[in-house]
Amino acid sequence: MNSPQIRFEDGAAYETYMGVWSRDVGEAFLRWLAPAPGWRWADVGCGNGAFTELLVQRCAPAEVKGIDPAAAQIAFARDRFANEARVAFEVGDAQALPWAEAAFDAATMALVIFFVPDPAKSVAEMARVARPGGSVSTYAWDLLGGGNPYAAMFEAMGELGIAQSGPPSPEASRLESLRALWQDAGLVDLETETFEVRREYESFDRYWDIARTGPRVATTIAGLSDPDRARLREALRRRVPADGTGRLVCTARANAIKGRVADR
Hints:
Blueprint: H1 11-33, E1 40-44, H2 50-59, E2 63-68, H3 71-80, E3 87-91, E4 104-110, H4 119-129, E5 130-141, H5 151-159, H6 175-184, E6 187-201, H7 204-211, H8 218-222, H9 226-239, E7 248-261
Parallel strand pairs: 1-2, 1-4, 2-3, 4-5
Antiparallel strand pairs: 5-7, 6-7
C-alpha cells in the first residue's frame, strides 16, 4: 500500500503500449457483461479513453463519464471524443468519486484496480454511484498469476537483479480478492470470469521498443549502462521466442467480476 502510485501520463504512448491489449480484453469483457443499451456509465480510471471508446461503440450508452488522476490522459481522452456529446471526462480520484449517489446504471473499472492504493474504497465508491440494481464490475490483469501482457519484461529484470516498481495493490487482481472486495461492498449476484487474449508483434525489435516504454520500467531501463541494457534485451529475448517468420505471439490473462447493487 505504500508503493508510489503508477500513472500513465502520456495518452499516445499508452495507446501503443497497452491500447491493443486493452481493446481485445475489453471486447471480451463487454460480451460477458452483456449490458443493456441506454445505460449511464461511470468509467473509473478511464485513462486515455480506450475502454470508453468500446462502451460507445458496443453498448449504445445514454451517457459516459470518465475519471482518471492523470491530466495528460484526460486531455487525450477529451480530444478523442471532441465531437461526442454523450461523453465527458474529468481529473479525479477513484477513491473519492465526484458524482452523486445512484447517478449511473453501471460503474466499471478497466485494468485499473491494482493501481488504486485502497481498492476497497474504490469499489465502495462505484457501488455508491450506481443505482439500486445497477451493475458494478471490473477486470484486471492477473498480475500475481503471470497474466500481465509484459510479464516477460518484469521476469527478465528480476533475473538480472534490476530494480522495478510495482503497483500498490497487485493482490486486488486475484479472483479471490475481487470476490471479497465485491462482497464487502455489499454487492450481490456476483459472477467471475477469466479472459485470455493474444497480440502479435512483427519482430522482437518491435516488441522490445514497446515493452521498454511501460511506466514501471521506462526510467530504469533508460538509466542502465549499455552493457546492462544489452543483457536485459537478451534475457527478454529468451522469454519471448519468435516463430519462423520472426513474429512474436504473446498472451495475457485478465480476471473479471460483476455484481449489482442491492435494492436499498
